[in-house]
Amino acid sequence: MPKHHKRDPSGWDKLAYWYDGWMGAAGSDHHQKLAVPAVLELLNLQAGEQVLDVGAGQGVLAPYVADAGGIYTGVDISPRLVAIARKRHSASGRFLQGDARRLSNIPMLKSNQFDAVVFLLSIQDMNPLDALLRSAAWALREGGRLVILMTHPCFRIPRQSGWGYDDERQLHFRRVDRYLKPLSVPMKPYGRQHSGVSISFHRPLSHYINGLAVCGFLVDALEEITSYETGTTKAEQRAYAEIPLFVGLRARKLSRLPPGQADVNG
């Protein structure tokens, strides 16, 4: 998936039609088989709960939330992707154009409004992390839950990780060349005119956990999700079953912030 902020008009708006063609109405195979089911399990939605999908794109999550009895709102910075979402999923919820770092600037949103906030394969394409987490905390009610589903930052680092094979040990392994240092990685240009380029933001897992704590969240679930691919050899099968593709985090907004930490809604 593919800048400064994931849906920045200078990046994702130019990529909107290419991205929609690649994703399709129901999402990619990774969305359908892995990402969406994992998010729904972590959400554990109850009928009538309000869900805010941040970086919603063309609204792939909307019908799943509606089917579970939730009340869906999607936010995306790309006007083109919001228009696609409204055309395709208006029966499942509402879609608003706005910046994930400044949710309080979107007139139709209110502080402490939502039971759950979701980043579905979007947060790794947004920056800076602290502004995103503060913004999510502003939107959540006390006790509400934040669910983040992202490519696993320990094993999936753009241009700094990949598969390898050890002939001597007959092992298919995951090579990681860099990890601890945050990286902003421009991805390849997309589309016939190559007019849009996305940026992926790598951060170590500790940045997410510590960032959530600073913003008044308590992590209460972490799921590591392997690929649905099985491989053609025993070495591949073992590696694909052991090395996660995605990680899912669930965190609760505390009624009281930890001592010495500022009120993120202040």
Describe the model.
- The protein is globular.
- The chain has 266 residues and is of the alpha/beta class.
- The chain has a domain of 178 residues: Vaccinia Virus protein VP39 (Rossmann fold).
- It contains seven helices and eleven strands.
- α1 runs parallel beside α4.
- A seven-stranded mixed sheet has the order 3-2-1-4-5-11-10, sandwiched between helices. A two-stranded antiparallel ribbon has the order 6-7.
The secondary-structure class comes to alpha/beta
- Rounded mean pLDDT is 88
Lateral arrangement of strands in the main beta sheet? 3-2-1-4-5-11-10
What's the gyration radius in Å? 18 Å
Uncertain ranges? 1-10
As for the CATH topology of the domain at 9-152 and 203-227 and 245-253, it is Rossmann fold
- The helix tally amounts to 7
Which architecture of the domain at 9-152 and 203-227 and 245-253 does the CATH hierarchy give at level 2? Answer: 3-Layer(aba) Sandwich
Q: Supply the CATH superfamily name of the domain at 9-152 and 203-227 and 245-253.
A: Vaccinia Virus protein VP39
Report the β-strand fraction as a percent range: 25-35%
Q: Report the end-to-end length measured between terminal Cα atoms.
A: 33 Å
Task: Name the descriptors.
266 residues; alpha/beta; Rossmann fold; two-stranded antiparallel sheet; 29% helix; globular; disordered N terminus
